[in-house]
Amino acid sequence: MTQTPLKISADFDSGNIVVIDASNPSLTTLAIRPDTQSPHFQWFHFKVENLQVGQNHAFSLNNAGQSSYNRAWTGYNAVASYDHQNWFRVPSSFDGTALNFSLTPTESQVYFAYFEPYSRARHDWLIEQAINQADIDLIATGESVEGREIQLLRKGDGAEGKRKIWIIAQQHPGEHMAEWFMEGLIERLQEKNDPVMDSLLAAADLYLVPHMNPDGSFHGHLRTNAKGKDLNRAWQDSTEELSPEVFFVQQQMEKYGVDMFLDVHGDEEIPYVFTAACEGNPGYTPKQQELEAHFRSHLSSITRDFQSKYGYMRAQPGQANMNLACNSVGERYKCLSLTLEMPFKDNDDAPNELTGWSGQRSKQLAKDVLTTLSEMVSVLR
Ligand code: GEM
Ligand code: ZN
User: Fold this and answer.
1) Which atom of ligand 1 lies at the shortest distance from residue 313's CA?
2) Whether the domain at 7-113 and the domain at 120-379 fall into the same CATH topology
């Protein structure tokens, strides 16, 4: 009996794949499409239909070796889902050219992705949840290059004297763990009878941007917005034309002020959760150094899903790239300013064989970060 050919598709929110050869259902050859107007690529997300249940189907992403972070494929396992909601890791291997993985499916259709996707529909639901369930205010709305809303939310009344803690997410559109993190923040802010949150919110307002780059995510980009701009390289020269997303947030920071900044990202290569700071800034202060150590020490003490042993090389004094959000905000506001990195792989200090790092673990990390912020809000200035 001839088999129905596999149907491969990616014409949906954050979809990204190019079919090279799907004629042999036992081995399908695919390629990842680069970001618009940019050579960057690594993010993939696609659907396969007409699978033969019980038969092994292999897939090969044949340009993985030319991706932005091609060393990151070693030790990486793709994620799969039959229902687009529950995701599991699929053993994968990198041969220097292609990323290869296979599945003996229990259902006739499956999705594969680089990480558990966070959809625009779920983003819209999250904004509603924030406003209607967490007593969070939508205080300003910017627009992306293609006109998608960039929401600035605030938990708190903006009263004089309260610290202003800013948390932004997914400047890099392929780093979907970032908006999972934001969902965890907003979920905890809905909880009643949470004295740790009461203590934080008595002293601080939270300024939240759940998604900085909706165009890039929608188009299945790894790194850039719809103009091919890396938003985390736009903080010295943002424009309304090329990087309106950053331009908007910088305007709002000037309007409200900043006492702490957290820029939420994902890292392709390092299998740990960690932070990078602004130690290379020309105006880096001992207070900033002290606050970084305080944040890292406290968060490490309350979860195994954070550590400071592994991470990026520290920048040399005065050598920081000031186009990065963390450095630019740290210099401008002389506050604790951090980039938070979650892994596309797993946290090797506390591995989960089934899921690796996941949306759920990103959410829990956010709740733990709120505990740390509550513990240290009184010393931020
Ligand atoms: C990173 S932040 C880069 C920080 N690099 C060092 N060495 N401190 C970026 O923008 O490249 C954040 C990310 O993409 O996850
Ligand atoms: Zn990033």
Assistant:
1) 7
2) no
